[in-house]
UniProtKB/TrEMBL annotation:
It comes from Thiomicrospira aerophila AL3. CDD domains: Glyco_tranf_GTA_type (cd00761). Residues 5-126 form the Glycosyltransferase 2-like domain. This is Glycosyl transferase. One of its GO terms (molecular function) is hexosyltransferase activity. Gene3D superfamilies: Spore Coat Polysaccharide Biosynthesis Protein SpsA, Chain A (3.90.550.10). Keywords: Transferase. It comes from the Bacteria. InterPro entries: Glyco_trans_2-like, Nucleotide-diphossugar_trans.
Length: 259
């Protein structure tokens, strides 16, 4: 039984999946399993992933028979996971070599059951162009106002929570999972040290922001069950903070929106 199960959904990821897997293979600790769930790719992703599976038994591939979206792919991996800790890494993102070692030590010293970390933003060529810092801790209501937990850095402890899966929505399902976890514990704790790299794709960045806003509203209303007034309250915080982070990062830092 591995100490960490790494959850990786994959769909048409040929361009980046090798680099993603290599970032896991380069970890300074070796006691992990990586469960990649392919969501009906039509490119050569499966062949690329399979080549790694054949070389390293810690890497496992599950293939979905019907294209089902990232929530189903991630939940399939969570259900198959054997590790105590559940970590997340998408098929185009990267971990720095000491990511697991440092974050697990951070968790174990103070028995934190749910943690996250700072990360860089990189472009499609792997060039760093931004840093996303994180608050020291967040509670449920904090997170509703701004999701400050990057999926590629999140880890939770199944000995504390059991296995907890993502809500079955097409987008923002990771946000939904963090909220589920924070209903079971008071805080998630942040390690404000860069441990990962989030790849920003050039395709439809503005459309992605619009989609994120739409699905955030749906998350408040349909998953969290908020009435329209409560949802509007949290959505206004989400919208203003998101705008500050994008358009006025200096002011955002002054207000504590950015670290």
């Amino acid at each position: 039984m591995s100490i960490v199960s790494i959850i990786t959904p994959s769909h048409n990821s040929t361009q980046f999946i090798s680099e993603t897997i290599q970032s896991v293979l380069s970890q300074s600790i070796s006691d992990w399993e990586m469960i990649i769930v392919d969501d009906c790719s039509t490119d050569k992703s499966v062949e690329v992933i399979q080549s790694f599976v054949e070389q390293d038994s810690r890497i496992k591939l599950i293939r979905l028979s019907v294209n089902s979206g990232a929530a189903v792919a991630r939940n399939t991996a969570i259900e198959a996971a054997q590790g105590r800790y559940i970590a997340f890494l998408d098929s185009d993102d990267l971990w720095l070599p000491d990511k697991l070692e440092k974050q697990l030590a951070f968790m174990q010293v103070d028995n934190y059951p749910f943690t996250y970390a700072a990360y860089d933003k990189i472009d499609e060529n792997g060039q760093v162009f931004g840093l996303i810092g994180v608050p020291d801790r967040v509670c449920y209501s904090d997170l509703l106002k701004m999701c400050s937990i990057g999926c590629l850095t999140a880890i939770y402890d199944t000995e504390y929570f059991g296995k907890v899966t993502m809500p079955l929505i097409r987008k923002r399902q990771d946000f939904g999972l963090w909220l589920k976890l924070l209903k079971k514990t008071e805080y998630a704790y942040g390690l404000n040290e860069t441990l990962a790299q989030y790849r920003v794709r050039t395709d439809s960045i503005s459309a992605n922001k619009a989609n994120a806003a739409k699905f955030t509203w749906r998350l408040y209303r349909e998953v969290e069950g908020m009435n329209v007034f409560k949802a509007s309250y949290y959505f206004s915080h989400y919208a203003v903070r998101g705008l500050l982070r994008t358009k006025a990062p200096g002011l955002a830092r002054m207000l504590g929106v950015l670290k």
